[in-house]
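Running this now, will post back.
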Amino acid sequence: MRHFIPILFAAAALAPAFAFGQERYVPLEQRFTAEQLQQTGLDRLSTAELARLNSLLREEQITSPPASAAANIGLRTPRKSAEPEQSRVDSRIKGEFRGWSPGARLELENGQVWRVIEGELYARRMASPKVTINSGLVSGWYLQVEGQSPRAKVRREK
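Update: finished.
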């Protein structure tokens, strides 16, 4: 039994790598019903034309991340494990800034709102300082104000 536990952890660690390698593209003829194919005119494509269209869509999906990836960074939304997730946000705090403590709500100029979970910073008054929010190595998000060394563990609210 004690040999089983390390194997289980190794399998769990490698699972995302195998999932990432799997193709997630679903061909058009499998996505739509015959009626939908007819309504869109896709039923009039030759086999070669349909194969080329599927190929182009597959290549586009592989080379470009989802358009909403940046908009949803840090939010607790379900996502497919094979989708890349952005791991950094660069913005400015909206308005005057004097620091943070747990529970503080920080609104960024890009429209995102983050709540401080852990950490404290008492800073001189600053107008719209630059901030960087990075994902942690294991979990969570960490906010740092340019020119300040402490970081705050934060959670995205909106």
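Strands lie at 88-92, 96-100, 105-107, 113-118, 121-127, 130-135, 141-145, 151-156. More later if anyone needs it.
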